[in-house]
Amino acid sequence: MDELADKGYVIIDHFLSAEELQLIAHYLNQLDQEDQLQKAGIGSIDYHVDKEIRGDFIYWLSPLKDPIMSPYFDKVDQLIELLNRYCFLSISSSEFHFALYPKGSFYQKHLDQFKERNNRLISMVFYMNENWKPEDEGELMIYQTEPPIKIPPINNRLVMFKSDSVEHEVLLTHANRKSITGWLLHQPNGLGYLT
Ligand code: OGA
Ligand code: NI
Which atom of ligand 1 is nearest to the CA of 159? Predict the structure, then answer.
């Protein structure tokens, strides 16, 4: 909590147990094999697909539709409780998707808050990449320091950062790169488009 408040980002390794991680990674592979992931777009109102900006494929998750994800959502709920209590935030909901960056893809430098919809408070990215090697690159680059820091997307690593102010980028990846990306929101998700 202190690190997130002071530096704007925090890295938490070994976020899930080995069993939980295996279950969830297996589920992602299954969704991918069933062709359930779709090309990701940009922005909430001017939604369009532009592979010059981002090259990932995503699948939106929900506790009801994807009950197998409950270990992950339970952990997120614990985090939300801590953040609300110790960082005086008023997080009331969240949204998560699986993301698969195929070999050769990236996501250009950006902020996670939409201009039209600024309810994303905290960004969370959880990586599921067994045997990630330095030459695979595909690091998350965070522009909070000079020079910016490069965070390798290693297995069972969670990175959290402030959505409104932390510029970041996914560097060109030379191996398929898997994650769960999500946002902690400060109002009911459904109202986002009206504000
Ligand atoms: C995003 C994003 C970072 C990552 O989806 O908005 O910046 O490391 N993802 O996957
Ligand atoms: Ni982002």
Answer: 8
